[in-house]
Write a structure and sequence with these properties.
heterodimer; A: Alpha-Beta Plaits; 24% strand; B: Porin; 12-stranded antiparallel β-barrel; 4-stranded antiparallel beta sheet; 16 strands
Chain lengths: 173, 328
């Protein structure tokens, strides 16, 4: 069989090719998807503002914003330091509020601004578009006031200490 | 088809409107511009002055900028052929006749510069719903000799003003109310010892907006068609005119020149403004509208009063990137 590897292409060349492909593939893999439900927004002009603000962040590779459900799917470059707070602030700078902030499980160690007490899986992540598990970020910057109150009530029953540091972040004001 | 079917179909249609719009052509919504975003607007208004059969124009160039997500500032420069830059020596003749065809037409000139600022102090955001409130202040320096009791800070009068805006937006309805006050400054012309001051004004505007098209978004390139109805209620005091320190008593104008009297005396009116708005590429806005009197009328212009404006957003992003398709 003349087309078998090793006869036409030497194994050493194949190894180099595979290595090169891995080198190309690795940076593609160094990414995560963060999902943000944006509140207070209705029209495509508003969505465009939010998308522009998020797109400015250095660690953001791409943003898709579902215009009918107002969910932003943000591809972040995890080879850089990813600031979740910067993402929340970008939504705020566009003039809107984070309704819910979802980060992949487990949170990447390169994410700055997330501590173990700031995320919790309150409920199993729902929605058909999710292929992996997600944590809901807890804190005023990452969810609207109503959702935050619900979470606090739920956490109280679980003897959970609410994230005190986040109390100071009032992005939705 | 019975009227019940028409009502049913109308209600079904309204209930299917996915979102409402608050990009009101006349009133300002309580929402402020995104941080670092600019907005340029070209405005054009015209009406026919029926007493003289002349067309009157007003052109405006507006620029707004979002300093913070809660605070935006802006300026308007207006150009028109509504007024003269100074009052002629025979003041009474001017007031009686300048609306007539026998009197020379006012030249096109720069009317003035308006500077305004808005601060959003209350925000309650929910999924496709928000309740927002803002305060605004504005000031205007005018280069023309305004000669009507009704003050306008959109470059007609020098003066200051301010007020509150409340905007509620929910899927099927966008409603906004603005309560404002205008304090005009006096126009003086020392060469003829002339002083004119329009009355103070209180205004309340109510605006309603709907998005007619598209029902559901496919991409940022979808053309949006919105309709608006805005109602302006305005009450203002009478003008004060003096020549060399003595005030005019223009009560007798009521009989000799009723139109002049109406332009100088206090008034209350309600205007209805109806607009169609197109949004292109989720960035550019084109508004077409017409203004009709509902209760009494404004004596600053004649009806119908037409308006066309074009607005574009200018992003000052550090990384300018082409936005990807929005579906996922």
């Amino acid at each position: 069989m003349s087309f078998l590897p090793g006869k036409i292409v030497p194994y050493s060349v194949l190894k180099i090719l595979v290595y090169c492909m891995w080198l190309v593939y690795m940076p593609v893999q160094a990414q995560d998807t963060v999902r943000i439900q944006i509140d207070g927004m209705t029209c495509s002009l508003c969505s465009r503002n939010v998308q522009q603000q998020i797109q400015q962040l250095q660690f953001v590779k791409k943003v898709w914003l579902q215009l009918n459900t107002n969910v932003a799917e943000v591809i972040v470059d995890t080879s850089r330091s990813v600031s979740i707070e910067a993402l929340a602030k970008a939504v705020y700078n566009a003039g809107f509020t984070v309704g819910k902030f979802l980060v992949p499980i487990p949170p990447n160690p390169r994410y700055s601004g997330i501590y173990s007490y700031q995320y919790i899986s309150i409920q199993p992540p729902s929605g058909q578009f999710m292929t992996t598990g997600y944590y809901t970020l807890v804190g005023k910057a990452y969810m609207n006031q109503e959702a935050y109150k619900k979470v606090k009530r739920a956490l109280k029953g679980m003897h959970y200490i609410p994230p005190v540091n986040n109390e100071k972040i009032l992005y939705y004001q | 088809m019975s009227y019940r079917w028409i009502i049913f179909l109308t209600l079904s249609y309204i209930s299917n409107l996915s979102v409402a719009q608050e990009l009101f052509p006349y009133a300002e919504a309580a929402s402020t511009l995104a941080k670092g975003t600019g907005q340029a607007r070209l405005m054009f208004m015209n009406f026919k002055e029926q007493s003289s059969n002349r067309m009157k124009y007003w052109y405006g160039l507006q620029y707004n900028y979002g300093i913070t997500p809660l605070w935006s500032v802006g300026t308007v420069v207006g150009v028109s052929n509504h007024h003269f830059t100074s009052i002629p020596v025979d003041v009474q003749n001017y007031f009686f006749n300048h609306h007539l065809n026998s009197f020379p037409s006012a030249p096109t000139s720069i009317e003035g510069i308006n500077v305004h600022s808005k601060y959003r102090f209350y925000t309650r955001d929910r999924h496709q719903e928000h309740l927002r409130a803002a305060v605004y202040v504005q000031g205007c320096y005018s280069f023309i000799a305004h000669d009507e009791a009704e003050p306008l800070l959109m470059t007609d009068n020098s003066g200051v003003g301010g007020g509150f805006i409340g905007t509620y937006l929910i899927k099927k309805l966008a409603l906004s109310m603005t309560l404002g006050y205008i304090y005009p400054f006096a126009y003086t012309q020392p060469d003829i010892g002339y002083r004119f001051r329009s009355g103070n004004a209180l205004e309340l505007s109510t605006s309603i907006g709907y998005r007619l098209w598209p029902f559901t978004y496919q991409s940022y390139q979808d053309i949006n068609v919105n309709i608006y109805a805005e109602f302006l209620m305005k009450q203002y005091g009478r003008a004060t005119i003096s020549e060399y320190g003595s005030n005019w008593d223009f009560e007798n104008f009521r009989l000799t020149s009723p139109y002049t009297y109406n332009t100088l005396t206090e008034n209350f009116y309600i205007d209805g403004r109806f607009y169609v708005q197109l949004i292109l590429n989720s960035n550019d806005r084109i508004d077409f509208g017409v203004n009709f009197p509902i209760v009494s009328r404004s004596f600053n212009y004649w009806y119908p009063h037409y308006m066309i404006q074009y607005t574009t957003s200018i992003f000052s992003a550090k990384r300018r990137v082409k936005l990807p398709d929005t579906s996922f």
